[in-house]
Every structure is written in structure tokens, then in C-alpha cells.
TrEMBL record:
The protein's name: Protein SirB1 N-terminal domain-containing protein
Species this chain originates from: Streptomyces phaeofaciens
Family according to the record: Belongs to the UPF0162 family.
Residue ranges of every copy of the Protein SirB1 N-terminal domain listed in the record: 56-200
InterPro entries: SirB1_N (IPR032698)
Length: 284
């Protein structure tokens, strides 16, 4: 780590963020806030341990401002809407989809703007600290928050915490997929599911900006540290390394992926090995 003249220590040692992320992802009960903040630390070299602590303190502070509500799920939803969406102005807009900061929890806490999934993380983590029965709900195409044991009250943090009326969740799903809402979509999202979805969003953002292949690479590196990640991520990483000019590293990743898939798809393995051979030939 480096420090300034006042002794303020910033950043993490090389590789430390990824080690901590992998450790948390493999914990018995992974902590969503910690993993989201470590994603932010990978994106922002200046965000060191003190920055992570400050973000946790901010979530605690916001939770301390939630009024005591002895009522049911709707009361909790209204209380969080009034605090986060009303008093503090947490919400999103179309332009937030164009900003990497919208996927970084510490930036969302500072800017009070973000993607639906990151705003939902804020809602869930503040409400949970305040004692509310709350869960993230990963609807196709749009992340929302459910209050109550069965997520009977849904709110849309991207719209300032607006409570979704009857049929509105169905409309969100139909608009994104063309299919109706099913009960299987209403299950609480697990922390690792949320984190993978955030990293997928970051990779999509970077894919649309070839000059930011560095972001795509670290997002892939973190995704590969989540247990039971899709094997295809190794293929994606190998191809990305080749595009970045790391022909040997890319070829090695492609060959490892070919070994993994050979037992189930020999023709795919052969195609990937041909990609690796082409990458190695680029050194000549």
C-alpha cells in the first residue's frame, strides 16, 4: 500500500482484493456488502480498507435513520421509500446505464444514483440493518426489492422506491422477456447470484467499450473466483487476453478450457484448441 504525507493509507496490496473477494465468496454465508465493495476496490485503486469501512459506516448510519415501524411489510417499504428515495434521493435514470460508477456500491452511496441492482443492494442492506424482512428479487431484466417473508410487497429502488401495484411486476417481466411472471422469479436472490449479475453488467458495459478491456478483464477475474462459475468464462478470458495482445496467456487459458469441455463436447474442444494455436502463431 501507499500512503500520503499525513499517513493516510490507500489502496490494497497487489492481488489482495481478489484474494479477499475469493475468500468471501467461499464463506459459509457470503456477505453481499463486502463483495460489492471489493468489486469497487478492484475498479478504484484509491479505495482502500478505510474506504470500505466508510461505506459500511454510511449504510449503518442510514439504517439508524429508519423510523421504528412495528407494522407489516408495507410499513417497512413505505419507511424505506421515504428515507432513501425521498429524503436522500436515491434513484436511477437512463444515463446511469452509461456509467461504470453505477455498478460500484461506494460510488452509488456517494452519488445516490445507480443501476437497479446496486440501488436494490442499498435498499436491502439498509433495511436489513434496521430489522426489516427484506430480500432482493432478481426479476428478468429488472432488479427490485421485496418486503415480507414471501416478498409480498415489491418496491422499485430505481424509481425512488415506488411500491409496485398489482400487475406491475408482471408488466416489468413481460416487457423484458415477453413471458409472464412466474412464482420461481419471486424467490429471494442469494448474495452470490447478485454479485454475478453485477459482474455480468460490468462486463457488458466494458464489452461495448473496447478501449476498456481492462475493466472486462478484472470483472472476469473476479467472476472466476465465485464458486461454480460457468466454464465458458475461461473461454471468454482467453479470447480477451488475445485481443489485449497477451497471446501466450490467452492461448494457455484457451487450452485449459478445451481440456475442461473435451469430455462433453469434442468438437468444441477442437475449435478452441485451434483458437489457441492461432494465438500462439501471432507471436511469429
Amino acid at each position: 500500500m501507499s500512503g500520503d504525507e499525513n499517513g493516510d493509507v490507500r489502496g490494497f496490496a497487489a492481488g489482495e482484493v481478489r484474494r479477499l473477494f475469493a475468500e468471501e465468496a467461499r464463506a459459509e454465508r457470503p456477505d453481499l456488502t463486502t463483495m460489492c465493495l471489493l468489486i469497487g476496490a478492484e475498479a478504484d485503486p484509491e479505495l482502500g480498507p478505510a474506504g470500505l469501512d466508510a461505506a459500511q459506516v454510511e449504510l449503518d448510519r442510514l439504517a439508524g435513520e429508519v423510523p421504528y415501524r412495528p407494522g407489516g411489510a408495507r410499513d417497512w417499504a413505505v419507511a424505506l421509500r421515504e428515507l432513501l428515495g425521498g429524503r436522500y434521493g436515491f434513484r436511477g435514470s437512463a444515463t446511469d446505464y452509461q456509467r461504470l460508477e453505477s455498478s460500484l456500491l461506494h460510488q452509488v452511496l456517494a452519488r445516490r444514483r445507480g443501476l437497479p441492482i446496486l440501488l436494490s443492494v442499498v435498499w436491502v442492506e439498509v433495511a436489513r440493518r434496521a430489522g426489516a424482512p427484506v430480500h432482493g428479487v432478481a426479476l428478468p431484466g429488472h432488479f427490485v426489492v421485496g418486503f415480507g417473508a414471501d416478498c409480498e410487497v415489491l418496491v422499485d429502488p430505481f424509481d425512488g422506491g415506488r411500491l409496485l401495484g398489482e400487475g406491475e411486476a408482471d408488466a416489468l417481466v413481460a416487457g423484458a422477456t415477453g413471458a409472464p411472471l412466474s412464482p420461481s422469479m419471486m424467490v429471494p436472490a442469494e448474495p452470490l447470484e447478485v454479485v454475478i449479475r453485477i459482474l455480468n453488467n460490468i462486463r457488458s458495459w466494458a464489452t461495448a467499450r473496447p478501449e476498456r478491456s481492462d475493466v472486462a478483464l478484472w470483472a472476469l477475474e473476479l467472476s472466476l473466483r465465485v464458486p461454480h462459475h460457468p466454464a465458458r468464462l475461461r473461454h471468454e478470458k482467453g479470447q480477451l487476453l488475445v485481443r489485449r495482445g497477451d497471446f501466450l496467456g490467452g492461448a494457455a487459458e484457451l487450452e485449459e478450457y478445451a481440456e475442461l469441455v473435451e469430455v462433453v463436447d469434442e468438437s468444441l474442444a477442437a475449435r478452441v484448441r485451434a483458437e489457441a494455436q492461432t494465438a500462439r502463431a501471432m507471436l511469429n
